[in-house]
Amino acid sequence: IRIDYKLKRKDSTKSLLIKTEQLLRIEDHDFAMRPGFGGSAIPVGIDVQVESLDSISEVNMDFTMTLYLRHYWKDERLAFPSSNNLSRTFDGRLIKKIWKPDVFFVHSKRSFIHDTTMENIMLRVYPDGNILYSVRITVTSLCSMDFSRFPLDTQNCSLELESCAYAYAENDLMLYWKNGNDSLRTDEIALSQFFIEEFHPSHGLALYSSTGWYNRLYINFILRRHIFFFMLQTYFPTMLMVVLSWVSFWIDRRAVPARVSLGITTVLTMSTIITGVSASMPQVSYVKAVDIYLWTSFLFVFLSVIEYAAVNYFTTKEEMKKLEQLKLSGYDASQAMAFDGCFHDEDIELSAFPLSDLNTDTCMSSQNSTTPALPPVLGTRLRRRRSIRQSVNHIMSNSYKIDSYSRIFFPLAYFLFNIIYWSIYS
């Protein structure tokens, strides 16, 4: 009796499956052909619910999205009688036996249907033959990004849906957004580097020279990049390195190890920042906004090193010139350098006035009693307007003034650059 009961139960399960296939008359039709074959194009409505925007890669120029893709069409071959007009829902096993739209993602790199714990596919058939086919998909698609304003940029990406160019053209299948602009819905999506400004659907036509015109649907979304991350990781460190390079203007010009070490350190740090930013970006053939800022800042740091090289050169040249003057005047230069330890900037800053005016200097005054007066150097006390060449020569002969001017010029120039940069790109 128990064996007969089990066999009966097994047969009854089998009979239920047979009844379902008989109800939909699957064996009576050729589902290799579309509904209404030979007639007008079959309309297929689409609506999408975006579950998540998983990742956006600037290096690969793509994005990954998980969504619920729903298709709506009518196939009268699957109509069935019903007294209560209720639909019937099936899983993915039945979808393999009937006709379904051949929708695919244009420019897709990778995609898959979720299959945990079962394939995430749902098929719902209504008594009048209307069908709802829903599938949960994760797709990675191309996004052609423009980085000319990076990281102050806004990217416009789109996921494109189309009927396969190998099967049904515009005359056979017509894709459309089922509910217009309301056909695209999104859950609450939060991204680490981007703010989603807008999600909206659109449609168009695509031409393939060998097969014809095809309907194409677009899921457009606009992404605006959060700037705060790059302010902390790129802009603020760069600003600090530029400001740090200006510290050398306040260090004694004879402190060669201190000023050279500071200049080399800031240059190497700027190179590290530029390398780190470039490594996380695609190798594009145009200049990005962040490149302009980084390389201009690098130029300021580099010029601060060149500034000290000029100061050191002119200082050495100035001292050698004045030592030659002392030798020509009969003054012992070696004694002057060793006398009272007074070989400082104030002691050798000989201007274009007679050297007799320097008698107030403590080091030179100690020699006045034994050393004959030095012959006057050509010059004048009259104040008159200098030419540009004379001004340059004056600065070269007074190299300490280069640091004084740099303390003003470098900050003002960098501040002006920042005003222009942020007014253009922000």
In DSSP terms (H or I, runs of 4 or more residues), the helix count works out at: 10
CATH class placement of the largest domain: Mainly Alpha
Name the helicity range.
25-40%
Total strands = 12
Name of the CATH homologous superfamily of the largest domain: Neurotransmitter-gated ion-channel transmembrane domain
Strand-and-helix sequence, N→C?
A: HEEEHEEEEEEEEEHHHHHHHH
Cα-based radius of gyration, to the nearest Å: 41 Å
The geometry reads as rod-shaped
Distance N to C terminus: 84 Å
What proportion strand? 25-35%
* Count of the domains: 2
Which structural class best describes the helix and strand composition? alpha+beta
Instruction: Flag low-confidence runs.
Output: 1-18, 337-372
CATH architecture heading of the largest domain = Up-down Bundle
| Major beta-sheet overview | 8 strands, mixed
CATH topology of the largest domain: Methane Monooxygenase Hydroxylase, Chain G, domain 1
Please provide a written account of the structure:
- Helix 4 packs antiparallel against helix 5 (289-328).
- Helices cover 37% and strands 25% of the residues.
- It folds into two domains: 42-225, Neurotransmitter-gated ion-channel ligand-binding domain (Acetylcholine Binding Protein, Chain: A, Distorted Sandwich); 230-425, Methane Monooxygenase Hydroxylase, Chain G, domain 1 (Up-down Bundle), CATH 1.20.58.
- The chain is rod-shaped, with a radius of gyration of 41 Å.
- The chain has ten helices and twelve strands.
- With 426 residues, the chain is α+β, with helices and mostly antiparallel strands.
- The strands form two sheets. Strands 1, 2, 3, 5, 6, 7, 9 and 10 form an eight-stranded mixed β-sheet that branches.
- A hairpin with a 3-residue loop joins strand 11 (194-208) and strand 12 (212-225).
- Belongs to the ligand-gated ion channel (TC 1.A.9) family.
- It is found in: Postsynaptic cell membrane.
